[in-house]
Backbone:
């Protein structure tokens, strides 16, 4: 479709003044020199072909050829036989070299190395040998082929208007309908497409709901402590006072909540993060009674409710009182956090406000929404979960077996569900243990990193996530961890 | 990969109590009836195969077969030979029918009609015959094949860690580097990857920057009036007082700005929205002098700076003073608004705060970011622009020729750039004209819909966008518009 010629005609903004006394060639040279010196033309940028630039600026081609040659001679540009002229990397000393392009999958080994380096810099430090951080599912198992197939379907079949501006603040109705049905059948959520808002993961939902609550006069919200500290920050940013509620092996302490003056609460009843507690049946009842009595809102963070092992399934709290409980789900623990897709099933009077806040923040890309709708509708999400549950169960069992042997004094809690559990170790110096573990190639976090408010008599321990740890590595990882803990 | 069996094993949350006196079959029936009645199982939802559900619940298959049969008899479920059992659409009268699935590209004509209906409901009302609204580029020209190729490349080559959690609040370094180079060469923006933040379109950037300014004590921000009213709302939501500045054919009135007590200003210097003015050279200078004198920030909305026709290119204001001007770009006018991708080139001291706000709102999906990086890096964005510029130029010329003939008294302004211009008509009843135009199948907006504050002596007129209007339709569209205007 594109000719070879137009491959070398990238946009380039250069000013030529035909009324100025300077010759056109000198003007062009100076304009390019200035653009390179002032950082507008970056090292490695391809210049247009001499023919294309001459056409663009209405100059004779010879003028452009000479200007390029002069700048090559000066070290500003680099020309290679059969390749586009590029901007050189001009160092302080004036020496020049071509910067590698950032193209994904570039075949030039230098470029590939630069891309790999850049990737490392934003993905974080070097990959640990054993990654026990509880922050992602098995990314190597992401169903790339099935996802690509849904992307292809959407790009082939979505009408042109799909690509336009969308005034619907809740997101694509296709996705809302599919997710309402999915959340209903798999998690017992009682909602429909009208009361769903598509969000930028659970993060985007918490920010938007925090803002909506603040705007209707809510001042104080309770959260679990230990809990997901990012949520504490998001709610504080939304202008709310955040109250820490204690958590034990039955989940959030509802008695403590009842004597607080919280007007809303954010909880993870299916698998408290990070301790792993399942909210006990009597506390579920008490929590909903509290909400009714205080006219308060419960925000249910169902971040990994799809994973359950030993116990009977427990449905979402939301199903018991849909006008008092907001349900939050996402694909971060089932597919991949980087998809940035979540959903909120809301009481009717919060839908529009939350949707508008999500839209004001930029909204979720429509093609991604339709891709997920197709993916779930074709049963691919169920299929993926069905494939992964036994994998995670196996990892969990291998870890528990290794812990029983290597760390007989540790107490394990929160194993019934999710992708992580907690290892309680009395009197553990968590920071020292994590540093020592890091030295041995184990990435692991202490319970303390999930605390909002320090307390004297808190239990100490480590969180063990198995989203990223292959079953075969469980024994060695725990042996190293045990060695690290005995060294501190 | 998936067996036929597992195709019919979607997740389904059902509670069975082995200690209860009720028979298991009756419990299962009641659980399904309750889930359907309470809206947790939606009409059209596929149930698991009897074999899969029996395995899941540790029941004999016969129990599940009988329960399904009973519920089919009661009208709760619908069974069809060779197809999965589905939840029926139970009406108030108890009659039942299968709700169509929402699957994209479903071959069932009923389902396709339902999807088409749903799409219309969120895309807006019926498509007008002639769409002159200035809100999108030609969506039919979106380079689907080239975009799909970039998606494929990313899904094939991105390392697994790409799919994980990203702690970098600015977005993917690959995309920031590619866009910094692109904005530098094509728009004269002086920045680098470190000072770029990827945002949810310009919308997401304005919200985040508004919040960041408010948090550092800025109280009042000026905007153009008429202008993009959404930005007024976003800035007000961020807690800022929004001051209206008049606009004429040379752009924003910098003298008015100078006598106001604004501490920041949001402007569109390349093509004021909606009037289309290009900020005059002496006003560019005066605006930057104002910013330096007041220690104020200029936010440059370069929403369609890539399109220019008659005039010499004018670079971004940001290139003249990168520490006082924030540059905002996006793909909404070059590719498609639904991609929700934009970028902000920021002064160093704003980068982290804006990035964190974007992240707190949910962030931009990583695969989309890498897709755009690949797309721009392969030269596809330049190629697309090079293809589209003559198309839009042709549409604009056809419209101007038709206007000269059909509306000789109207004055046309703002034609030098962008994808829209303004038709000034003295004493026009804009609302009546737009309604009458709508009756004739023309979607068009009056100048008044872009005003923040009503004023007596404001000029009246209509905005004519040509992103969506084929050249061949220009004459008929303008003839109908002229007829509508003469009728009011």
Residues:
């Amino acid at each position: 479709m594109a000719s070879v010629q137009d491959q070398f005609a990238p946009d380039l903004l250069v000013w030529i003044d035909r009324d100025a006394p300077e010759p056109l060639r000198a003007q062009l040279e100076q304009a390019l020199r200035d653009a390179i010196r002032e950082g507008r033309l970056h090292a490695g940028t391809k210049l247009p072909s001499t023919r294309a630039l001459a056409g663009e600026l209405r100059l004779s081609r010879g003028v452009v050829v000479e200007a390029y040659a002069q700048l090559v001679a000066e070290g500003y540009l680099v020309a290679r036989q059969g390749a586009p002229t590029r901007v050189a990397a001009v160092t302080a000393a004036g020496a020049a070299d071509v910067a590698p392009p950032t193209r994904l999958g570039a075949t030039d080994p230098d470029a590939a190395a630069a891309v790999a380096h850049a990737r490392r810099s934003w993905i974080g430090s070097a990959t640990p040998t054993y990654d026990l951080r509880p922050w992602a599912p098995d990314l190597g198992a992401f169903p790339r082929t099935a996802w690509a197939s849904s992307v292809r379907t959407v790009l082939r079949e979505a009408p042109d208007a799909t690509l336009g501006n969308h005034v619907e603040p809740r997101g694509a109705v296709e996705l809302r309908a599919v997710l309402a049905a999915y959340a209903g059948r798999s998690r017992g959520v009682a909602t429909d497409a009208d009361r769903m808002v598509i969000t930028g993961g659970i993060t985007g939902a918490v920010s938007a709901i925090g803002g909506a609550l603040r705007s209707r006069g809510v001042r104080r919200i309770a959260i679990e402590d230990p809990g997901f500290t990012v949520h504490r920050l998001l709610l504080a940013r939304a202008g709310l006072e955040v109250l820490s509620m204690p958590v034990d092996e039955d989940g959030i302490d509802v008695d403590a909540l009842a004597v607080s003056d919280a007007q809303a609460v954010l909880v993870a009843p299916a698998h408290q993060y990070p301790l792993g507690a399942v909210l006990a049946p009597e506390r579920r009842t008490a929590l909903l009674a509290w909400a009714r009595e205080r006219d308060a809102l419960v925000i249910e963070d169902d971040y990994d409710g799809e994973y359950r092992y030993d116990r009977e399934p427990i449905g979402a709290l939301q199903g018991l009182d849909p006008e008092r409980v907001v349900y939050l789900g996402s694909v971060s623990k089932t597919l991949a956090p980087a998809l940035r897709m979540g959903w909120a099933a809301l009481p009717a009077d919060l839908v529009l406000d939350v949707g508008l806040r999500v839209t004001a923040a930029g909204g979720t890309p429509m093609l991604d929404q339709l891709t997920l709708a197709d993916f779930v509708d074709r049963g691919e999400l169920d299929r993926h979960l069905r494939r992964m549950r036994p994998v995670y169960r196996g990892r969990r069992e291998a870890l528990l077996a290794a812990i029983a042997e290597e760390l007989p004094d540790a107490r394990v809690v929160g194993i019934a569900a999710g992708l992580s559990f907690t290892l309680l170790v009395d009197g553990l110096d968590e920071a020292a243990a994590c540093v020592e573990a890091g030295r041995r190639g184990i990435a692991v976090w202490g319970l303390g990193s999930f605390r909002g408010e320090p307390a004297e008599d808190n239990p100490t321990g480590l969180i063990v996530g198995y989203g990223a740890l292959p079953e075969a590595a469980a024994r060695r990882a725990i042996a190293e961890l045990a060695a690290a803990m005995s060294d501190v």
Q: What stands out?
A: Confidence is low (pLDDT under 50) at residues 1-7, 91-125 of chain B. Chain B has 16 helices and 17 strands.
